[in-house]
Design goal:
266 residues; seven-stranded antiparallel beta sheet; Extracellular Endonuclease, Chain A; two-stranded antiparallel sheet; alpha+beta; globular
Length: 266
């Protein structure tokens, strides 16, 4: 099944680029020669796919009130048929009995305004092997907090992805799953928070709230609330080598990327 439903364009950006409005962190392109930094632009989110690790390098999306609805979770995990024909396409069975969850990067709860949009979050190119306690507790609470911010009249630009090699799931430590699906050491996420409006890039200033986290991919991570894992965007850039928020003016970037968020988390 190839998913082609389009979400309504937001905030002055065309649908083609709204999910990449903050920038393309790794300079990913749709050139198949760049198989470990392959750009996939979907209506629901955009991502850089790594065909060696068989996971995304990062996933980027926008979420506002129009993206949130009452559609139930589809749970129709499926290979991504839009990958190049000769590339291996990860299946849900590659995660079976691994001790790791199929961890959505763009979550189902951020795309429940239609069945088609919700189904897109279950493509395997949107997944990483995630420790159950990370996925179901720490990460889930952060995702819920993000939707709470939206319900309070905000719109969010979110970028997240895996980092490092080797995590600890319910069966213990592992470097990879079946078909060499890489297990990451940590997960990171960056959230730009804006009151709903237009011309979003122009509205970002030195006071704009930016939340960045770095969370171990382990069962033990849930012993602390997600707010304890907050870091600066600069720290994540040093760790990953990516250039985040590159579409924001440099003078503003310098300020908001150096700051560690200390806002309320509930």
């Amino acid at each position: 099944m190839i998913l082609t439903c389009w979400i309504i364009p937001l905030s002055g950006f065309s649908q083609e680029n709204v999910n990449l409005a903050m920038g393309n962190p790794s300079g990913a392109t749709s050139d198949t020669i760049k198989k470990d930094n392959y750009l996939m632009v979907k209506p629901q989110y955009s991502l850089s796919y790594n065909n060696t690790k068989h996971t995304p390098n990062w996933v980027s999306w926008h979420v506002g009130s129009s993206d949130l609805g009452i559609i139930s979770r589809q749970s129709n995990f499926q290979p991504d048929a839009t990958l190049p024909a000769n590339w291996y396409k990860v299946t849900p069975q590659d995660y079976s009995n691994s001790g790791f969850d199929k961890g959505q990067q763009c979550p189902t709860g951020d795309r429940n305004n239609s069945e088609e949009n919700n189904s897109a979050t279950f493509l395997m190119t949107n997944m990483i092997p995630q420790a159950p306690n990370n996925n179901r507790i720490t990460w889930d609470r952060l995702e819920s907090y993000c939707r709470k911010l939206v319900s309070q009249g905000n719109e969010l630009y979110i970028i997240c992805g895996p980092e490092g090699t080797g995590g600890t799931g319910s069966n213990g430590f592992s470097l990879e799953l079946k078909h060499n699906v890489a297990v990451p050491l940590q997960l990171w996420k960056i959230i730009v928070v804006l009151p709903e409006g237009n011309d979003d890039i122009k509205r970002i200033d030195a006071s704009t709230r930016v939340i960045a986290v770095l969370i171990p991919n382990s069962q033990e991570c849930s012993e602390k609330e997600w707010g304890k894992y907050r870091v600066s965007v600069n720290q994540l850039q040093s760790l990953t080598g990516y250039d985040f928020l590159s579409n924001i003016p440099k003078d503003i970037q310098k300020i908001i990327e150096a700051r560690i968020d200390d806002g309320l988390i509930n």
